[in-house]
Amino acid sequence: MSKFIIVTGGVVSSLGKGITAASLGRLLINRGLSVTVQKLDPYINVDPGTMSPYQHGEVFVTEDGAETDLDIGHYERFLDISCKKNCNYTSGKIYSSIIAKERAGEYLGKTIQVVPHVTNEIKDSIMGVASEDVDVVIVEIGGTVGDIEGLSFLEAVRQLRVELGRENILFLHCALVPYLEAAHEVKTKPAQSSVKELTRLGIQPDILVCRTNAGIEITDEMKEKLAMFCNLRGPEYVIHNSDAEHLYDLPLMLQKEGLDTIVCKQLKLKAPKANMADWKKMMVSIKKKKPQISVAIVGKYTEVADAYISVTEALKHAGIANNVDVHVKLVNAEEVEQRGAEAVLFDVKGIVVPGGFGKRGIEGKIAAAKYARENNIPYLGICLGMQIAVIEFARNILGYSDANSAEIDPKTKHNVIDIMEDQKNISEKGGTMRLGAYPCELVKGTKAYEAYGTSKVDERHRHRYEFNNKFKKEIEANGMKVSGVNKKRDLVEIVEIPENKFYVACQFHPEFKSHPYRPHPLFAALISACK
Ligand code: GLN
Asked: At what angle do helices 309-321 and 521-530 cross, to 10 degrees?
């Protein structure tokens, strides 16, 4: 049966808990263990699907169609696994399941309480990812210890420890260890306090991961002190996690600190030392000095870097494979509207219009697509970015000045992008889109086919609107080619302009399937064209 590692965070948020957990997972996998992950988010939304990227960054989509926290994306990229629906629970999801059962009379007249009903539901969700084939489940609890919303989750894992025993479940706590400029001192007190807060809730962490700024040292004396005051078994249970130069440095840094060794010791996992030779090779090629190229992401949440994290990562992965350093320029679509495409995009070698919802910035994105098409600048349209490419083509090549998506202009006669039939009568907003992986057949002789090197692919979706087949013939007759389709549902999945160097736009989200050492073919082809 699987063993569990519960990851919590203290002092402040944004400590890189997710990356720490993902890095530990990578080390355990490279020891030959099978690992899976789960993120528990204490907020009340049922999933992040209806949350603004301003609140929560990107919404990541799994193969089986769950809208999840962006940390799941980090897990998939670091661990090279495909997560399932049960990889992400929120308080909202837990409560809606309990309330549905209560309404169905399943609790036989009992009063429904946080303990035991909510905590039992949480424990069931955690145990739901365990199996004979999984050696280790890493469970990250979102938020910070002390948050009101997180209490039921912490109580649930406290109970699990009693039920499963110390050899089967380990607590890893991440905390900030700040450096005080004025005092010239590294302070361990906040970390100690957050461990105290945890122990007050009945949880004694086994391992303390101390996050510091780059260049700050955690001396052996400090490790001794932290171990002593936090009730840890020894200084080797205190792990230093400093700001890294590169995200993917972390597994190697944590290996050096002995994190996976101590985890295996504590959980009595017999596994050889992690072989990180390939990862090290990857880091060498990431850090090698390479020519730089700029690629723009034209979106509307450009103030929040995390809003386009998977797209940014996918561009970087494609850069590694193409031996260039991709500099991502986040461009606000409204700025393109105000200043014109040329003024904002003159210095980039490629343009990506990513997914998005709603009206704001649409005209700027259309202007960016036009600029790319007319100036033969490599373009990759993703989901909304594909719809934008079709709208731009219909307006400026077919001459339909009112061409639009029904999402933006429900009354237009030239609704080249239209709501799907099965979406028309759905009023609920959460979890009702075309979500998750669907097959796509590629047309031989196209750029898309050439990029993938195969004729059948599965790609992940998250949208309500589709290419309107009513305009397909006319669009194709005028120079935009359909290069990928979903045969079963007769849906256009990819369009391209064969005349251009690379002008490809897809209805799905290729960024969710890109890995640092296995870039997504469409991103790799984009960057190759940019070179
Ligand atoms: N808003 C568009 C739709 O729902 C595109 C969605 C997206 O880009 N993910 O179809």
From this structure: 60
Question: How many Å separate Cα 500 from the centre of its chain?
Answer: 31
Nearest to 145, CA basis, from 50, 8, 306, 344: 8
| Minimum-distance ligand 1 atom for the alpha carbon of 358 | 1
Determine the straight-line distance between the first and last CA of the chain, rounded to whole angstroms.
Answer: 49
Cα 163–Cα 165–Cα 171 angle in degrees, nearest 5:
105
Task: Go through 28-63 and write b for each residue having 16 or more CB atoms within 10 A of its CB, e for each that does not.
Answer: bbbbebebbbbbbbbbebbbbbebebeebbbbbbbb
pLDDT tens-digit profile of 281-319?
999 999 999 999 999 999 999 988 799 999 999 999 999
pLDDT 10s digits, 179-214: 998 989 999 999 999 999 999 999 999 999 999 998
- 0.70 exceeded by the pTM? yes
List the strands of the sheet with 465-467, edge to edge: 404-405, 415-419, 465-467
With beta carbons less than 8 A apart as the criterion, state whether 368 and 345 touch: yes
Active site residue 224: no
- Whether 509 sits among the annotated catalytic residues: the reply is yes
Which token pair is 119? 């905590």
Exactly one of 83, 174, 230, 383 is catalytic; name it: 383
440 has catalytic annotation: no
